[in-house]
Specification:
alpha+beta; 4-stranded antiparallel beta sheet; 39% helix; single chain; 1 helix
Length: 152
């Protein structure tokens, strides 16, 4: 009977030593994996911000956002939303909600009101990194209605 109880005690001591030795061996690779995933999401956030900015430029170029809805001196900020997208990194997938804010830049007012400079602030939900948003600038030109030469 006494041999059996010592054997059980020896097995428990061996298992606890194995557990103590394995923790440092396993924890470091897990930390590295988490850091790699964080960096991948940050890179994906930068890529999605650039892609979203190009979509905004296309909308402005095609006049999908009318001149009247753009910010002015009186109404300095206007929020817009974009369709959700799915962001992928190896092994993970997230649905990202996108919206952006156009802010009228007062510091660079142009005399002729056919041009406006805007700050574009792009936001994602959930956030992909520590940045609260991505900021760009864009110049928008008002499309003047062309007069038919026969009518003039």
């Amino acid at each position: 009977m006494q041999k059996r109880s010592f054997l059980l005690l020896e097995i428990l001591i061996a298992l606890s030593l194995i557990g103590i030795c394995i923790v440092p061996l396993v924890s470091r690779p897990l930390e590295l994996l988490q850091a790699e995933n964080k960096i991948l999401w940050e890179m994906e956030g930068e890529r999605l911000a650039d892609w979203t900015y190009s979509e905004i430029q296309i909308q402005l170029f095609k006049n999908a956002i009318p001149w009247e809805k753009l910010p002015t001196k009186e109404k300095k900020k206007v929020d817009f939303s974009l369709p959700d997208i799915i962001a992928n990194i190896p092994g993970k997938e997230r649905r990202i909600k996108r919206h952006f804010t156009l802010e009228y830049d007062l510091g660079r007012d142009v005399e002729a009101q056919s041009y406006r400079l805007f700050k574009v602030q792009i936001h994602f939900t959930p956030e992909l990194n520590k940045k609260k948003g991505y900021e760009y600038q864009v110049i928008v030109r008002k499309i003047v209605e062309q007069i038919n030469p026969k009518e003039a």
